[in-house]
Amino acid sequence: MGSNDLRINDNIRAREVRLISSEGEQVGILSRNDALRMAEEKELDLVEVAPQAKPPVCKVMDYGKYKYEQAKKAKKAKKNQNVMNIKEVQMGVKIEDHDFNVKLKMARRFLKDKDKVKVRVKFRGRELVHKELGYGLMDRLIEGTEDLGKVESKPRMEGRNMFMFLTPDMDK
Prior knowledge:
Helices cover 34% and strands 31% of the residues. It has helices at 32-41, 63-80, 97-112, 131-145; strands at 16-20, 26-31, 45-50, 57-61, 86-92, 116-122, 149-158, 161-168.
């Protein structure tokens, strides 16, 4: 149950509630009206924290402050969450050394940015006969990026393309 659908004050339907004071101490089972009166005396809200319990558990607290704290926690959790995108590097079998080095730099940059890298080698026409050239390119790329990431899936053929995935090392 999210913080949005907690019942507070007059919205609590149960006749009896198990009350917890604002200091976190168990008060015991009271009628809803007595519990509301205690909350009003302290100028706080009565919040139903465990509606599924018998009787429901209610706590005396500042509801606005509670909602603010929950939103702050959710924001912090979202900030610490790591979102990983997939970036793709494509090349042909007959790629020249300079062009390969450009693709290697791209893959290294993507891994530094903590993105997953999908490497694709395209085979055209009769190049398909020489799959070892594709595996050679993949091996060179693995060697060039081994300090930044590791191979998630080994090179494999799918139609006229060879694919491989590299994932960044998370501890760096």
